[in-house]
Design a protein that fits this description.
- With about 500 residues, this protein is mostly helical.
- It contains 19 helices and no strands.
- The chain folds into three domains: about 1-265 and about 465-495, no CATH class; about 275-330; about 345-465.
- It is about 75% helix and about 0% strand.
- Helix 4 packs antiparallel against helix 5, helix 10 packs antiparallel against helix 19 (about 465-495) and helix 12 runs antiparallel to helix 13.
- The protein is flat, with a radius of gyration of 31 Å.
Length: about 500
Amino acid sequence: MKNKKKYEKTNLIAEIEKFGYKVSVKSLLGTFASVVAGCIAAGYLFKLKPMGYVIVCIVAVMCTFSIIYQSYKARYEQRRFSDVSIYLERMIYYFSSGITILDSLELIIKVFPSGEMHDVLAKAISIIRTANVSDADKAALDEIEKAYPVKRVKTLHKFMLQLQKNGGNAELGKNILLADRRNWVDRTMELQAGKRNFKRDIVIVIAIVTAMCLFAIYVPQFVKQFNVDISLNPLVQATSVMLLCADILIYTHINKFMSKNWLDEKPEKTDEECKKIYDNYYNDNTKSDVIIAAICSAVTVVAGVILYSKVHSVFIFAVMAVLVIFFAKSPDLGNKEVKKQIQRMIEISYPEWLLQVSLYLATENVPVAMTKSYEEAPGIIKPALFKMLKELDADPASSEPYNNFLKEFNVNGVEESMTALYSLAASEGGNIEDEFSNLIKRNSELSNKAEKLKNEDKLFMMQLNMYLPSAVCCGKMICDFMILFITFFSTSISLI
């Protein structure tokens, strides 16, 4: 099912049923009634006028449609993830036991007696049984990939087709795929736990800052020196309504993070974008960069000399010197930032490429495995891989292409894995099985780290939302205290 950005609010039940869940009108009305009751209670605390109650209730009811929808969507996404993780695990075991793709599908469909995954598997089995084409297996697996566009599903299917056609070391592939699947599941569950924790924290922050906003309304009424009630002030009324509406909207916005597609694997950069980043790095300090830096330095020197001749200040001279040094170093500073960007992208993408190479090793030697991996390699890896393959064509027995691969970026794990690949290529490993085992272990470690980096990026935007309730609260409290002091001083002057 495609994610829908918009949905028919007048037919919420039908939208929920599309996710495979049943909900009654009675339960929905109960939810809306509870929301309205909560809004009335909050409005009472802030001493809202009738119009304020109406506005807050309307906003809350409208957002409740989204909240209910997103909550069921979150359950749906979790179920899809669970189905895929089970499918990967069972399919790896079934197929690696030596049976055909069709036999594997007929076994795994029993694990899903009903539901979306069952329907997709049934259709795939039907394609193999009824198709009169040689690539029926591929067509069937493509159908599964269409319903679940996950890289790990595609990787598994490619390995299955490759192994069924050419034969090879099924046990090696099984160990690699199982380790990768385990890391993926663990890190995904960790990500979702992080999301839940942030949601809980934001709800707590909303409750605390909203309660703090009651301070300016109630405390002055109990202090004899003040004895002022500002709650009926039009501006206070307006900010109270805005605060409560903002709380509702922030919660609704945060709730959408919880329902994002668990299987979403959009690449960080396209191949074209990666190439551009590489070009920016390798073509740095070009004539244009140097010319621009020189012009900026010259303008700074001229301006500094003119100012110094007028003011005769050492400070002017010091500022000029700092700016000239900055402009002279600016090409190198830009280069360092680009390098850091490339390093992080390699940290995330390298394990994916190493996984592909490792799976090809089940049926191919090392040079052929790396050659076949080029087309599906992450964009950030391709330039270095292309260079490496050219060097291997010139001297297949040399260790230099392996040693120099991504060396300048000094990414942890690359050197060790490339050493293992060279040992396998040169048959220097003494015990090839040990080399394979080390390669699988290294790839698992790198994959685990890469998934953590991806999760950090995904949680970053959610972390930023932690400041929204506090910002709204500060604005509300500043406004209330201004009204409080104005009212107090006005009352004091009138009494005099």
